[in-house]
């Protein structure tokens, strides 16, 4: 029988109240609390799936599991980030993410009210290309890819893929012009 964790990792409907997943979130929360109190980069290396050389994270960080977060080299994650990593979050090289950004991979059933009531969910990965800048307060929704060299304006809600080398802003986020 396939575990709820295996379902989560493969993008299938899973129950987030599964004891294994709850234990993993508690482990991540302990590490997040330690990082937020100390800003010890060694804790981020233990928490994240990978983090490249020269990258750094500012407190206050929040995440679900940590091991599904992969951050490239020379990238920056500013204050108060929320990374819901029920699916993989990939942050490229030379990325700047402004304060209070949210990267949200979780999805809940829309039409199946009973499944939602029973705490079933799915997740879809988020990919942020190289040399991307996300302004403060940007929300990136599940399944979104942001192309290399894109700039996302502060406060934008990114619900769809953004191509490379563009400025995109708004709610929902839309391309304004090429860069």
Task: Describe the protein's topology.
Blueprint: H1 4-9, E1 14-15, H2 19-38, H3 41-47, E2 50-51, E3 56-57, E4 62-63, E5 69-71, E6 76-77, E7 82-84, E8 89-91, E9 96-97, E10 102-104, E11 106-107, H4 113-117, E12 120-123, E13 126-128, E14 133-134, E15 139-140, E16 145-146, E17 151-152, E18 157-158, E19 166-169, E20 174-178
Parallel strand pairs: 2-5, 3-6, 4-7, 5-8, 6-9, 7-10, 8-13, 9-14, 10-15, 13-16, 14-17, 15-18, 17-19
Antiparallel strand pairs: 1-12, 11-12, 19-20
Helix pairs in contact: 2-3
Pfam family, one: Mac
Keywords: Acyltransferase, Repeat, Transferase
Protein name: Acetyltransferase
- Using only C-alpha atoms, the radius of gyration works out to 16 Å
Main sheet? 7 strands, mixed
Number of helices: 4
Strand content: 25-35%
Approximate helicity band: 10-25%
Strand order of the largest sheet: 3-6-9-14-17-19-20
Spatial separation of the terminal alpha carbons: 49 Å
- Which structural class do you get from the secondary structure elements? alpha/beta
Number of strands: 20
Low-confidence stretches: none
**Residue-averaged pLDDT:** 97
Order of helices and strands: HEHHEEEEEEEEEEHEEEEEEEEE
Shape: globular
Your description of this structure?
This protein is 21% helix and 29% strand. It is an alpha/beta fold and 179 residues long. Strands 3-6-9-14-17-19-20 form a seven-stranded mixed sheet, with no helix packed on it. The protein has a five-stranded parallel sheet with strand order 2-5-8-13-16, with helices on one face. Strands 4-7-10-15-18 form a five-stranded parallel sheet. β19 and β20 (174-178) form a beta hairpin. α2 runs antiparallel to α3 (41-47).
